[in-house]
């Protein structure tokens, strides 16, 4: 039956790689004694408190760990949330939170994700750019002009809202896009992420990623999972490994995903990440309310999301 939002917890949302190094550092210091943070030292082969957060291989596992810890601290490991969802790498965090994968398997998988992205970058340097203030049609037109000019690769890897699109491509094409956008009325910001995530440039490392996913044991999630790639809601393991494998080369459809959550009756979402990135995006889109702070546990049970 439809989800009844009255008196229930909001859905929980997990961000992709966080670039706010201060937020990551504060979070790791605050939770330094948590078992998952202690496990980080083994996974990233470094003391998390003094790690280089500009390194994707470090920032992604740290973002993952702090997202899970934040969600657990807010409502426990068994909070009856109506849905769990994630942006980019946060989709893996959502799976771990929902119990679809073991949290420590997820931590190792995210480390592999960072290594694979770094490998792709070394083979063929790439860049990500967030274009803000232009609608999708305008971004697409500019993208095509850039490809015609550069002769390279430039494609959308994420749709955060109606006027924020993330593009991925080779260095020259991204530089050209930044210049064209800044000459117009929009703004463009390169993202500090090594790896052409959610683009066809990752095809050359897809086999390595599929092998990493194949080592993960999937379990039925305890709460529904809403994918920000294919917008499907999953309440069992069917399709989860396949989703995670192809996720590497498909764009993130965040605005559509939050709209889909609202259409299914979810009243609000809460950003469990350490830097409120998704909450800030949510304020711009208005697709669904984002809470300003961690929710209190509800007194009544949550209906199932169908």
Automatic annotation (TrEMBL):
GO MF annotation, one: [acyl-carrier-protein] S-malonyltransferase activity
This protein's record includes keyword Transferase: yes
SUPFAM superfamilies reported in the protein's UniProt record: FabD/lysophospholipase-like (SSF52151)
Pfam families from the UniProt entry: Acyl_transf_1
UniProt GO BP: fatty acid biosynthetic process
Keyword Acyltransferase assigned: yes
Positions of the Malonyl-CoA:ACP transacylase (MAT) domain: 13-295
SMART domains: PKS_AT (SM00827)
Catalytic function, reaction form: holo-[ACP] + malonyl-CoA = malonyl-[ACP] + CoA
Keywords: Acyltransferase, Transferase
EC number: 2.3.1.39
Protein name, per record: [acyl-carrier-protein] S-malonyltransferase
Organism: Pseudosporangium ferrugineum
